[in-house]
C-alpha cells in the first residue's frame, strides 16, 4: 500500500498510527472535508487493536468507578455500532456469577446492573435479569456451584473480528479521500521553529524516503505515543499502558455457550471465559508493563493464571498449558498514572493532548478503547478544526454505515445472499460475517476466474478470491496482513500455517508476487507468529526437525 511521491506532499492532517483510533480519525476528518494521510510502520490494526478482548463494552465495569460520562459514551457508541456495522458487531449475552467471598457481592452487582439498564434504555439488545442458583445449575451445569450465591445474565456486544473493523474504517476513509500508508515508518517529525509541520517517512520495503507537510499532525500511535515524541518534542510521559494477555483453547469439558464474566480468586480481577469462532478465549490479565513494546508476549505465569482460574470456575475443564492453541498479548494505551495500586482504576477514557504553545500543530491522543473509537475520532477532528482556525463542521460518522453494511436492509441482504450463493451455508455465513455486503465481491471474483473459487483453507472454507481481494482492494502487503487481518484464517487452530503456502501461491499467480517474494513471505509469516507462542508452530518445527533426522 506504500506509494510515495518524490517531493513533499501537503495535507491538512497527518495521522501517525493506523490502529482503530488512527483510522477512525482519518475517516471522520476526511468525511468533514479535510485532506488526510495516515501512516503506520506495520499493518492496519496490527498493534493493540488486534490484541483486544473483542468485546464492545457498554461500560458496565466503569460504573464501579463512577465514571458516568464514559458509561454513557460507551452505551451510545455500542448502539451506533449495532446499527452501522451489524455484520461485525453482535449482541453478546454474558453470565455474571457471584460467589461467597467475592469482593463485589451479588446485591451490589444487581444494583449496578439496574442502574446500567436505566442509563441504556432504548440502546440495548436486552435487559439484564437475575438467575437463581438452581437455574444456573440447570442452564450451566459445568459451572462451579461451590459458594455460588446466584448470577445475572447481562447483554453486551462482541466484535469477533476487530481486524475487519479496522479494514472497513480504512475502506471508508479511502473512499472519502484519505490516503493510508502502511509498512511505512515515521522517521521523525518535521519541525520549523516551534511548530510541527508534518512528518518524515520511509517505505519499509523500498527504503524510499519522503516528507509529508501537514497543517496539523496527530500522534495516535497508541502505546507508542511517547516513542514518537522522544528526542524531538519534550513532554512528560503520556502512556502508562498495562499488559493484557489472553489464551485461545479448543472447546473443553463443560465449556459454556455464553460468556462467563467472573471474579478471579487470585487477584479479584474480573476476567472472561467466552466462546469465539468455535473456540474459547480466556482473559485477560492487567499487569504494569515497562518492557519493550515490540516484544510483548504472554508469559508462562499469565497463561498458568488464566488456566487455573478457568479450571476453578469449571472444575471439569482440566486445562493444561498443552491445551493452549496460542496466546495473544498487547499493551493497553492508557494514560500514565502514578500512585495507583490497582490498574483497573486507571481511566479507560481518552484525552486529546495539545503540545501548544511549545510545539504548535501537534496533538497526541492519550487512551481510548475499541468501543469508543468513533467518539474519540469526533473529538480529535473537532480539535483539529479548532487548531486550523476553521469553523465547526457537522460530524457525519454517527449515522454513516460501514462499507460492509452499506445496504438499506442488512437482514434482507443477508437472507438473499445465503439463498443465492453457490457455496454451502457455512461458507456463505463466514463470508457475510467477514465482509458484509462486500461478500458479493468475493463471489464475483470467483465467478470471473474459476481458479479463484478454489478453497485455500479447509477448516474455514476460505477462497482464493479472498487473497486477491485482500491485496488488490483491502491494502494487504504481507502474507501476515492477508492471513491474520483480512481473511482471518490465521486466527484458527493452526494459525493459518496449513493455508500459508496455498495463499502465497495465489498471490504469485494472480497478484504479481514472484517465487522469491513468496518464499520470503512464508518465512516472514512464521517469524510474525512467534509472538503468539502457537502450538502449531512448535509442532511444525518439531516435525521438520524429525524429518531432517530421518533423512
UniProtKB/TrEMBL annotation:
Keywords in alphabetical order: FAD, Flavoprotein, Oxidoreductase
Oxidoreductase listed as a keyword: yes
Domain (FAD dependent oxidoreductase) ranges: 12-373
Domain named Alpha-glycerophosphate oxidase C-terminal: residues: 395-517
Record bears the keyword Oxidoreductase: yes
Obligatory cofactor(s): FAD
PANTHER family: GLYCEROL-3-PHOSPHATE DEHYDROGENASE, GLYCEROL-3-PHOSPHATE DEHYDROGENASE, MITOCHONDRIAL
Family (UniProt): Belongs to the FAD-dependent glycerol-3-phosphate dehydrogenase family.
Protein name (database record): Glycerol-3-phosphate dehydrogenase/oxidase
Organism in which the protein naturally occurs: Streptosporangium fragile
Amino acid at each position: 500500500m506504500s506509494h510515495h511521491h518524490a517531493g513533499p506532499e501537503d495535507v491538512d492532517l497527518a495521522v501517525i498510527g493506523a490502529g482503530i483510533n488512527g483510522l477512525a480519525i482519518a475517516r471522520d476528518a476526511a468525511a468533514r472535508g479535510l485532506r488526510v494521510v495516515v501512516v503506520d510502520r506495520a499493518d492496519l490494526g496490527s498493534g493493540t487493536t488486534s490484541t483486544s478482548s473483542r468485546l464492545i463494552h457498554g461500560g458496565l465495569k466503569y460504573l464501579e468507578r463512577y465514571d458516568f460520562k464514559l458509561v454513557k459514551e460507551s452505551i451510545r457508541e455500542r448502539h451506533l455500532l449495532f446499527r452501522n456495522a451489524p455484520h461485525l458487531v453482535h449482541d453478546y449475552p454474558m453470565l455474571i456469577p457471584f460467589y461467597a467471598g467475592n469482593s463485589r457481592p451479588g446485591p451490589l452487582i444487581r444494583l449496578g446492573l439496574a442502574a446500567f439498564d436505566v442509563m441504556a434504555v432504548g440502546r440495548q439488545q436486552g435487559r439484564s435479569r437475575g438467575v437463581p442458583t438452581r437455574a444456573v445449575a440447570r442452564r450451566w451445569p459445568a459451572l462451579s456451584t461451590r459458594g455460588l450465591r446466584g448470577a445475572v445474565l447481562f447483554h453486551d456486544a462482541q466484535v469477533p473480528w476487530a481486524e475487519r473493523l479496522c479494514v472497513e474504517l480504512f475502506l471508508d476513509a479511502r473512499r472519502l479521500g484519505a490516503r493510508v500508508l502502511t509498512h511505512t515508518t515515521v522517521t521523525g517529525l518535521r519541525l520549523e521553529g516551534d511548530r510541527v509541520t508534518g512528518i518524515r517517512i520511509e517505505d519499509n520495503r523500498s527504503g524510499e524516503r519522503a516528507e509529508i507537510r501537514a497543517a496539523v499532525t496527530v500522534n495516535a500511535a497508541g502505546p507508542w505515543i511517547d516513542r514518537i515524541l522522544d528526542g524531538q518534542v519534550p513532554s512528560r510521559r503520556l502512556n502508562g499502558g498495562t499488559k493484557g494477555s489472553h489464551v485461545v483453547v479448543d472447546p473443553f469439558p463443560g465449556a459454556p455457550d455464553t460468556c462467563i464474566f467472573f471474579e478471579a480468586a487470585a487477584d479479584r480481577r474480573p476476567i472472561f471465559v467466552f466462546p469465539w469462532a468455535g473456540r474459547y478465549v480466556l482473559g485477560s490479565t492487567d499487569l504494569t508493563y515497562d518492557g519493550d513494546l515490540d516484544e510483548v508476549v504472554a508469559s508462562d505465569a499469565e497463561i498458568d493464571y488464566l488456566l487455573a482460574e478457568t479450571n476453578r470456575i469449571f472444575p471439569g475443564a482440566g486445562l493444561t498449558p498443552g491445551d493452549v492453541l496460542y496466546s495473544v498479548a498487547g499493551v493497553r494505551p492508557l494514560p500514565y498514572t502514578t500512585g495507583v495500586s490497582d490498574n483497573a482504576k486507571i481511566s479507560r477514557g481518552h484525552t486529546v493532548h495539545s503540545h501548544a504553545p511549545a510545539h504548535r500543530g501537534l496533538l497526541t491522543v492519550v487512551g481510548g478503547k475499541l468501543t469508543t473509537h468513533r467518539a474519540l475520532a469526533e473529538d480529535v477532528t473537532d480539535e483539529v478544526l479548532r487548531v486550523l482556525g476553521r469553523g465547526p463542521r457537522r460530524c457525519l460518522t454517527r449515522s454513516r454505515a460501514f462499507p460492509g453494511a452499506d445496504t438499506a436492509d442488512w437482514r434482507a441482504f443477508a437472507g438473499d445472499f445465503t439463498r443465492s450463493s453457490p457455496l454451502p451455508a457455512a461458507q456463505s455465513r463466514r463470508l457475510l460475517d467477514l465482509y458484509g455486503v462486500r461478500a458479493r465481491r468475493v463471489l464475483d471474483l470467483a465467478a470471473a476466474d474459476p481458479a479463484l473459487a478454489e478453497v485455500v483453507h479447509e477448516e474455514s472454507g476460505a477462497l482464493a478470491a479472498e487473497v486477491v481481494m485482500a491485496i488488490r482492494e483491502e491494502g494487504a502487503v504481507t502474507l501476515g496482513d492477508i492471513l491474520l487481518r483480512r481473511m482471518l484464517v490465521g486466527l484458527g487452530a493452526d494459525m493459518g500455517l496449513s493455508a500459508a503456502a496455498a495463499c502465497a501461491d495465489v498471490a504469485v499467480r494472480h497478484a504479481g508476487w514472484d517465487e522469491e517474494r513468496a518464499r520470503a513471505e512464508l518465512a516472514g509469516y512464521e517469524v510474525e507468529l512467534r509472538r503468539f507462542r502457537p502450538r502449531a508452530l512448535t509442532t511444525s518445527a518439531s516435525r521438520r526437525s524429525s524429518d531432517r533426522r530421518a533423512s
